[in-house]
Amino acid sequence: MSPLKIKKGSSKHSAYDLKDPNADYIERHTLACVVTNEAGVLARVIGLFSGRGYNIESLTVAEVDHEGHRSRITIVTVGTPAVITQIKAQLERMVPVHDVHDLTEEGASVERELALFKVTGTGNDRIEALRLAEIFRANVVDSTLESFVFEMTGHSEKIDAFADLMRPLGLVEQARTGVAALSRGAK
Amino acid sequence: MANKQMTGAEMVVQALIDQGVDTVFGYPGGAVLPIYDEIFQQEKINHILVRHEQGATHAAEGYARSTGKPGVVLVTSGPGATNAVTGMTDALMDSIPMIVLCGQVPTFMIGNDAFQEADTVGITRPCSKHNWLVKDTDQLSDVIHQAFHVATHGRPGPVLVDIPKDVQFAKGTYVPPKAASTQHYAPKVKGDIEKITELVEMMEKAQRPILYTGGGVINSGDSATALLRELAKETGFPVTSTLMGLGAYPASGDQWLGMLGMHGLYEANMAMHGCDLMINIGARFDDRITGRVDAFSPHSKKAHIDIDASSINKIIHVDVPIIGDVAHVLEDLLRVWKSRGRKTHKEGLAKWWKKIEEWRTKRCLEYKNSETIIKPQYALQRLEALTKHRKDRFICTEVGQHQMWAAQYLGFEEPNHWMTSGGLGTMGYGLPASVGVQVAHPDALVINVAGEASWLMNMQEMGTARQYNLPIKQFILNNERLGMVRQWQQLLHGNRYSHSWSEALPDFVVLAQAFGAKGIKCTDPSDLDDAIMEMLNYDGPVVFDCGVEKHENCYPMIPSGAPHNEMLMGEDTGEDAIGTKGAVMV
C-alpha cells in the first residue's frame, strides 16, 4: 500500500483534477465576431472551439465589408455562464478578431436561418406538404411532378418544426445555413 | 529610411536589423537557403547554429527570458518547422516573446506534398499567438514587423512567419517598422481605476492579505519589479510567487514566503489557504498552484491583475478583476493607496505575521542529510552557498524533481535570472536555454540544474556550446531515475515503477569529453564543494555528473485533488520509507 492508501485504478487522486467543475447550468448564446478577412481566420476560430472543448451549434461566415476586409462570423454555442465568458475572452484576444458581441446578453436581437427542403411524393402527401408550406410561408423554388424544393427563412425553431412536419410527408434532403443574427434597434 | 526595393531574403535580414535583433538561433535547410545567403553576407546579426531546431526555440526562450527582448529563431520548412513546435508551445504556455521565421516550399508547390513540405501555419496555429503565411514579397517586411509587435505586446508569446522560397527570391518594396500596419493590435495596458480603487479599499481593511505574484511581473519589465517591491515594502504584506515569477521579489526579503503550489513552501501555501485578501499579480491560477479548486483559499476575497482578460475567471472566480499591464496597474494602485493615506490594518497584519512565523517554524524544507550519499537538496544548498554571491548568476533547469528542488533551495534576488519550463513542463528545455542565456550574457555564470533524463533529451546542444565557446555549467543531479515520475508511482501507483528508470545511462564524463567539454563526476558529499569549485573555475562548458540519492522524494507536496492545507511533508524519505512510514498528511 502506498503512503496515500490509494487503490489501483482509483481516479480520486491523479495528476489532474478529473471532475468537471462546470457540469452545472448550460446556456445557449449567439455570438457575432467581426474579423479580418484573411486566410485561415475561420480555421483559427474553429480551432479555438475544438482545442478548448467548446461547443459549436451553428456557425456562419461571410465577408461583410469588402473594402475593409472584414467578415462577420455568427456562432451559436452552448455552455455554462463561466464557459461562455471564457469563449468571449478567448475570441477577443485573437489577433484578427476586432469585435465580439454576445447578442444573447446585449439585449434583443433578430436571428434568422435559411433552409432548403427537398420533399418527394405524390397524392395526398404532396398536397399536404404544399399546404403546410403555405402555412409556414415557405416558397417553392423548384418543382417536378414528384418533388418540391421549399425555401424557408426564419428562426431555427420554426425551421425545426417545419422539418419535423415534412419528415413523414417525404422529406429526403435538407440544407441549412446556420444562424445569422443582428441586434435590434438603431445601435 | 525610404521604402526601397529588395529581395524577400534581404528584407528578412533588414527587418531583423531594424527591429534591433542582434542574435538569431537557427538551422539551415533547402527552403531557407536564400535567407542564409544574406546572413552570410552581413555582420550585424549574430547567427547561432544549434544542433536541433527544438534547441533553437529553447535557446531563444533562454535569450528572451534573460534579456527581456524577444528571441528569434530561423528554421527551414517541414521537419525544421515541426521540430520547433515544442519550443513554441513552451513559449506560449510561459508567455515568452519569440519570433520563428521559417522557410516554406515555393508558393506554386504548396499543397503538392512537396519535399520537406508541411502545413506549418496549420500545425503551429494552436501553439502560436498568431502566425502568417506570406505569399507576396511586397507584404513580407510588413508582416515581420507585425510579428514582432504581436509577440511583444499584450501577453507576450510566440509567433511564426512562414516564408515560401520564391517569396525569398522575388523583389518587393521594403516597409520600415514605423510604417508597418501594427495599430489594430493594441491590448489595453491601463487598468480600470474604479476597480483599482476597490482593491485599495480592500487592502486597507485586510487583516490577512497576501501578494501572489507570477511571471507577468517579470514580463511587464523592470519597473513592474520595482513597483512590486515598493508595494510590498510600503504595505508590509507577505509575498509568495509562482515558479515563473521567482526573482521579482528578492528571496532574501523579509516578506518572502517562498514559492507556492504543488511543491511550494508550507508557509506560502498555508498563507494562501488562510488569507482574507489574495492579490494575484500576473499569475494565472494554474492547476499546480490551486490544488483542489473548490477548496482553494475558501475565506478570501480575490483580486486578479492580468493583461490577458481570458486568464481572469478562467479557473478561480475573482471579486476584483483588473485587466491591464502589471507595471501600469501597480503604479495606479500605489498612487491611489498613498493618496488615501497609506492605510493598512496594522493590528491584523501583526497577528497575520505571527501566524506566518508559526508556519515557518515547521521548516518544511528540512531533510535527512547523509554522510555517504549526496542528497539532491544538499547538492543544491552547496551550489547556492558557493554561487549566491555572484550577481551575474543565471539558473536554468530541466523539468522534474531537480527543478522543484532548485526553486526551493536556490534564492533569486533579481528577475530574469531564472529560466525554467513552467506551464508545458518540457524536459530538454534547460540545456538549450542555458545556451541562449550564455549567448546573451557571455561573461555571466550560467548554470543548468538538470536531471540526467531531461538533460539527455537535448544533449546535442553541447556541440553548440563548444562551437561558440559558451562556458555553460550543466549541473546534473543524477539519480538514474525519472525522479518525479518515480515519486508519483511510489505515492500514487503502489510502488509500481513502470519504465521510470534508464538501464543504459552514458558515462557523462566521457560524453562531456566527446563534445570537447569538461566532465566532472562526484558521488561523495565530502568531495562536493571541491568539485563544484572545479566546475565554477573552469573556463569552458562543464558537464557535472552529481550522483545523488536515487529514491529521494520532493516535499512538501500537495497531491492533486487536495487543498493547500493538506500537504505531504518529507518526514521520511528514501527507499526505506516506501510503503511503511512514508509521508503523512498534514
From TrEMBL, chain A:
Its EC number is 2.2.1.6. Keywords: Amino-acid biosynthesis, Branched-chain amino acid biosynthesis, Transferase. Residues 30-105 form the ACT domain. Gene3D superfamilies: 3.30.70.260, ACT-like. Chain A, domain 2. GO terms for cellular component: cytosol. InterPro entries: Acetalactate_synth_ssu (IPR004789), Acetolactate_synth/TF_NikR_C (IPR027271), Acetolactate_synth_ssu_C (IPR019455), ACT-like_dom_sf (IPR045865), ACT_dom (IPR002912), AHAS_ACT (IPR039557), AHAS_small-like_ACT (IPR054480). GO terms for molecular function: acetolactate synthase activity; acetolactate synthase regulator activity. GO terms for biological process: isoleucine biosynthetic process; L-valine biosynthetic process. Pathway: Amino-acid biosynthesis; L-valine biosynthesis; L-valine from pyruvate: step 1/4; Amino-acid biosynthesis; L-isoleucine biosynthesis; L-isoleucine from 2-oxobutanoate: step 1/4. It comes from the Bacteria. It catalyses: 2 pyruvate + H(+) = (2S)-2-acetolactate + CO2. Belongs to the acetolactate synthase small subunit family. Dimer of large and small chains. PANTHER family: ACETOLACTATE SYNTHASE SMALL SUBUNIT (PTHR30239), ACETOLACTATE SYNTHASE SMALL SUBUNIT 1, CHLOROPLASTIC (PTHR30239:SF0). Catalyzes the conversion of 2 pyruvate molecules into acetolactate in the first common step of the biosynthetic pathway of the branched-amino acids such as leucine, isoleucine, and valine. This is Acetolactate synthase small subunit.
TrEMBL record, chain B:
Residues 6-121 form the Thiamine pyrophosphate enzyme N-terminal TPP-binding domain. Its cofactor is Mg(2+); thiamine diphosphate. Gene3D superfamilies: 3.40.50.970, TPP-binding domain. The keyword Magnesium applies. SUPFAM superfamilies: DHS-like NAD/FAD-binding domain, Thiamin diphosphate-binding fold (THDP-binding). Residues 196-333 form the Thiamine pyrophosphate enzyme central domain. Binds 1 Mg(2+) ion per subunit. Its EC number is 2.2.1.6. It holds the Pfam family TPP_enzyme_C. It is an enzyme of class 2 (transferase). Pathway: Amino-acid biosynthesis; L-isoleucine biosynthesis; L-isoleucine from 2-oxobutanoate: step 1/4; Amino-acid biosynthesis; L-valine biosynthesis; L-valine from pyruvate: step 1/4. GO terms for cellular component: acetolactate synthase complex. Residues 399-546 form the Thiamine pyrophosphate enzyme TPP-binding domain. GO terms for biological process: isoleucine biosynthetic process; L-valine biosynthetic process. The keyword Amino-acid biosynthesis applies. Keywords: Amino-acid biosynthesis, Branched-chain amino acid biosynthesis, Magnesium, Metal-binding, Thiamine pyrophosphate, Transferase. It catalyses: 2 pyruvate + H(+) = (2S)-2-acetolactate + CO2. InterPro entries: Acetolactate_synth_lsu, AHAS_TPP, DHS-like_NAD/FAD-binding_dom, THDP-binding, Thiamin_PyroP_enz_cen_dom, Thiamin_PyroP_enz_TPP-bd_dom, TPP_enz, TPP_enzyme_TPP-bd. One of its GO terms (molecular function) is magnesium ion binding. PANTHER family: ACETOLACTATE SYNTHASE CATALYTIC SUBUNIT, MITOCHONDRIAL (PTHR18968:SF13), THIAMINE PYROPHOSPHATE ENZYMES (PTHR18968). Belongs to the TPP enzyme family. This is Acetolactate synthase. It comes from Litoreibacter halocynthiae.
